[in-house]
Every structure is written in structure tokens, then in C-alpha cells.
Design brief:
The complex is a heterodimer of chains A (about 80) and B (about 400).
Chain A lengths: L7 H16 L5 H23 L4 E5 L10 E3 L6
Antiparallel strand pairs in A: 1-2
Helix pairs in contact in A: 1-2
Chain B lengths: L12 H15 L3 E12 L6 E7 L2 E7 L1 H4 L11 E11 L4 E12 H18 L18 E5 L4 H13 L4 E6 L7 H15 L4 E6 L13 H9 L4 E5 L7 H5 L2 E3 L2 H8 L3 H35 L1 H4 L2 H43 L2 H5 L4 E3 L17 E5 L4 E5 L12
Parallel strand pairs in B: 3-5, 6-7, 6-8, 8-9, 9-10
Antiparallel strand pairs in B: 1-2, 1-4, 2-3, 4-5, 11-12, 12-13
Helix pairs in contact in B: 4-8, 5-6
Classes of the chains: A mainly alpha (about 80), B alpha/beta (about 400).
Chain lengths: ~80, ~400
């Protein structure tokens, strides 16, 4: 089963957990290396998410009904 | 004076009244009239309200029927400045025109303050301001909803600040009018639907600065109720810093201005990046520490003297074995000495108690051939061989026939 992609917040939480395990005296070295690799992978995923610079801005269109909202581009009047 | 029928239309009272009514209904179907309340009366039996609206030079009769005034959140008072929205109608019986009010919105600092106080009390009693109700705003929302006007400054401020902080943000705007008599119902509907659709993780509701009247929609019960019922956390962003609306008190988070709302809701990309690299450094540092700790222990083991001089391993064991042997011998001899001491004391005690002591005084112990001790003469017969135990040694004796023996026995 493919793993669900973690949300940014969840990734940070997981990183916290990894760090806690790494800091723990009882973590064997072999496990620490695995934790480190997993942590670095998570950091990369998060960084990639932050690199996305394209904002997506939409507005709800007037014809939206309760069961079927529709959205379209938002055009702001020039000040 | 003679009238000229060709120039003048004639009516009955009812006819002209009906015509006037038609004109008024057509021309003044949907109006909002501002003025000061006077002659206010509320008929408890019917629940209808009657009053006049006046300004310095005119006045108009108003009727606010129960079905419409039930949703009113404050009690009108004489002298209150209000905007009455509704339509003009004619009260035929009296030949009066009057405003049939559908919504009443307080105006002016005094009236607004009274209405605000009344509303605030009501919402407080409903528990809407309870801090326990407040939900946390997600730290990294996937999509941020905004209920506001697309014409105003608020949306621009939010976009400017928000996209500077989080350039990859997703935003969904629900356009609404933010002032006037129609603002409140539409804002409330916007909040309700954004919550219903769940297209965003949190919802900013607000507008830019304006007069107290302009901001009034954000005090209205329908708007606050929609925020209370909204399944998504609501952030209020109304007016300037000094303006506090009832929505601010009800919302999960109050932002002083729309720009501030963007500061609070949009995560800061730079800070997130810094935080990430911090974590990366920490993870690396932890791993390095683990390695150096393990390496240090290995080093200490490697440096131990035993590796350079393995003979020590054997020699020390020989020494220990020798020591053990010596100790064992010493222990054993001590045990023997002690054992013989114990034996000596017991022997002495035993001798003191021994019946053989009596023999030493010259007595002897006679036993027959079966070993039975001879206590009476009739135990033996002539010719029996007995054994006499003396203090030292034994002698064998034979019974001689004699008078004390048992002659009839044998």
C-alpha cells in the first residue's frame, strides 16, 4: 500500500519524534542511522513544499449551490 | 366655482387611496430610511411595534410587525438613530402612508452603543464568548478561506501580506457585501457555506476600516451565530485596531486588522525554512554525537592494557588460583583444630557422666552369655558362664553350685 503523503505539519511532528529518539541514550546506533536517513528525507519533502511559489487564488462563483460549490479565478479591481 | 370635468379626474376616497397605494408600492418597494425614533410603542399582546422616524424637518410613521421584529436583537428606544429598511404602504382607514419595516439597524454612537450592549449580553448568556469554545488555528493550513468584499482594501491587504509570508498559499474567497442592510445575511450565508463545503482549513471573515455603522454587520447576531456554528476555525478581521466587533469576541481568533489576520494565519516561509534547517542540523549533530560516543567507547576498549600484554590474562588467573589454594589449606586446618576442640569438650562431659566411673571404685558389672545384665541371683544357674566387667578389662566367671543359687532351676 502506498503511503499517504504527509502534510507539512505532520512531517514536522514526525521530525520532532525522530529527534527525540535520536537524543535518547537507549537508541542503538543502527537504529539511529535509520532515523537519521528518515529525518533527512522528511526535511527534503518539507523543503520541496516550501519551494512551491505559485499561489492559487480562487473565489466562489455566485451560482454555487449548497451541494455543488464552484470556484473561478479571482480578479481584483485595480485600486 | 364651476369645475371642468374634462381636466379633472374624479375619484371616490377608496379609489384615490387605492391609486396612491399602487404608486407608493411601485416607487418605494425597497427603501432604507434613516432617522430618529420617536413615539415608540410596543403592544405586548400583538407584539407589533409602532413609531415615527423623524429628522429636523419631517417625520414618517412606521410599523414593525411581530413576524419581522422577532429577529430584532435590540429594543428600540425613543431618540435612537436607526436605518429602517422596508417598503412604503398605505394605511387606508386613516389615509396615512407608513413604512412597513422589515429590518431595523441602529445608527450613531449612542444607539449603536445601546444595541451593542444588549447584543453582547445576549451572546454572553448564550456562552458564545466562552474561551473554552475557541479552537486552535492550524499552523500550516492547506487552504485559507476568506469571506469579504472583493472591492475593498481588506482582500488586497490579506493577499499582499499573506503571499509575502507564504508564496505557495491556496486561497478561496467568498465575495460578500460588507456594509449596508444586506451585508449581514450574506456574510452569515458565506460563513455557513464555507463551513458546509469544508474547502478550507480556516476562515478569515472581515473588512477594512469604516465608521461604526459601516462595521455594524459584524456585530449582528446572524453573523456571530454563523461563526459559532462554523465547523472550521474562524478568524475575525474587522476594521482598525481600535474597533472591537462582537464577531471578534465570538471568533476563534481575533485579528485587529485584515493585514494582521494574514500575519496570524499564513505561516511564514522564511521562518519555516529556518526551522527546517535547524532541525536538519540538530539531526546531524545527534547522529554525530552517537557516533563519537560509540567510537569513544571502542577506543577505550582498544586502549586497554590487556591487548598489549595478553599474558597478564593468564598470570593473574594463576595468582588467583594459588591464592585460593593457600586459603583453602588454611581454612581446612582451622576447621580441623576447631573440630578436635569440639570433640574434646564433649568427651570430657561424657566421661563425667559415664557409669564406668562406678567400676573404678571396685564394683563390677555381670552379664550373662546373652549380654543381659545380672541383677539377681535367681537369674543364673550353676555352671553358667558369665562375664564380669571391671574398671579395666573383663574376666570370665562360672557360677558354682551354692545355697543362694536356684537349685530347682535347670
Amino acid at each position: 500500500m502506498a503511503e499517504r503523503e504527509l502534510k507539512f505539519e505532520e512531517s514536522l511532528e514526525k521530525l520532532d519524534g525522530i529527534m527525540e529518539d535520536l537524543e535518547s541514550e537507549g537508541t542503538p546506533l543502527e537504529e539511529a542511522i535509520q532515523l537519521y536517513e528518515e529525518g533527512m528525507k522528511l526535511v527534503k519533502v518539507c523543503e520541496k513544499k516550501l519551494a512551491v511559489a505559485q499561489a492559487r487564488i480562487e473565489k466562489i462563483l455566485p451560482q454555487s449551490s449548497d451541494d455543488r460549490p464552484s470556484a473561478g479565478p479571482l480578479n481584483l479591481p485595480d485600486a | 366655482m364651476q369645475l371642468e370635468p374634462s381636466n379633472i379626474r374624479s375619484y371616490t376616497v377608496s379609489e384615490i387611496t387605492a391609486d396612491i397605494r399602487r404608486v407608493l408600492l411601485r416607487e418605494f418597494d425597497d427603501v432604507a430610511v434613516s432617522g430618529e425614533i420617536s413615539n415608540f410603542s410596543l403592544y405586548p399582546a400583538s407584539g407589533h411595534m409602532y413609531f415615527s422616524l423623524k429628522d429636523p424637518s419631517a417625520s414618517i410613521r412606521c410599523v414593525f410587525f411581530r413576524g419581522d421584529n422577532e429577529s430584532l436583537q435590540f429594543l428600540p428606544e425613543n431618540g435612537m438613530q436607526v436605518v429602517a429598511a422596508g417598503r412604503l404602504d398605505v394605511y387606508s382607514t386613516k389615509g396615512e402612508y407608513q413604512l412597513k419595516v422589515s429590518r431595523l439597524i441602529p445608527q450613531g454612537a449612542g444607539a449603536l452603543a445601546v444595541a451593542l450592549e444588549q447584543l453582547k449580553k445576549k451572546m454572553a448568556a448564550l456562552g458564545w464568548f466562552d474561551p473554552k469554545r475557541k479552537r486552535p488555528i492550524p499552523r500550516f493550513p492547506e487552504c485559507i478561506g476568506i469571506v469579504t468584499s472583493t472591492q475593498g482594501a481588506a482582500i488586497k491587504d490579506v493577499l499582499k501580506v499573506g503571499l509575502r509570508r507564504w508564496p505557495g498559499a491556496r486561497l478561496l474567497v467568498y465575495p460578500v457585501p460588507v456594509e449596508g442592510a444586506r451585508a449581514a445575511p450574506q456574510i452569515a450565508e458565506g460563513i455557513r457555506r464555507m463551513g458546509l463545503w469544508r474547502l478550507c482549513d480556516c476562515l478569515i471573515v472581515g473588512r477594512g476600516g469604516g465608521s461604526v455603522e459601516d462595521l455594524w454587520a459584524f456585530n449582528e447576531e446572524i453573523v456571530c451565530q454563523a461563526a459559532v456554528r462554523c465547523p472550521i476555525p474562524v478568524i475575525s478581521a474587522v476594521g482598525h485596531e481600535k474597533d472591537v466587533s462582537l464577531l471578534d469576541l465570538v471568533a476563534d481568533l481575533r485579528a485587529a486588522t485584515p493585514s494582521m489576520a494574514a500575519e496570524l494565519v499564513f505561516p511564514d516561509r522564511e521562518a519555516a525554512l529556518a526551522d527546517l534547517s535547524n532541525r536538519r542540523r540538530r539531526i546531524l549533530r545527534e547522529l554525530k554525537q552517537k557516533f563519537s560516543l560509540a567510537a569513544g567507547r571502542l577506543d577505550a576498549i582498544r586502549r586497554a592494557r590487556i591487548w598489549k600484554n595478553p599474558r597478564l590474562l593468564i598470570e593473574s588467573r594463576w595468582q588467583r588460583l594459588d591464592d585460593s589454594k593457600t586459603n583453602l589449606a588454611r581454612d581446612l586446618s582451622q576447621r580441623l583444630v576447631r573440630a578436635s576442640q569440639l570433640l574434646d569438650t564433649r568427651r570430657a562431659r561424657l566421661q563425667a557422666l559415664s557409669p564406668l566411673g562406678v567400676l573404678a571404685r571396685g564394683y563390677c558389672l555381670l552379664t550373662d552369655a546373652r549380654g543381659t545384665v545380672v541383677r539377681r541371683a535367681d537369674q543364673v544357674s550353676a555352671g553358667d558362664r558369665l562375664s564380669a566387667r571391671l574398671a579395666e578389662g573383663r574376666v570370665a566367671v562360672r557360677v558354682e553350685p551354692g545355697k543362694s543359687g536356684r537349685k530347682d532351676h535347670g
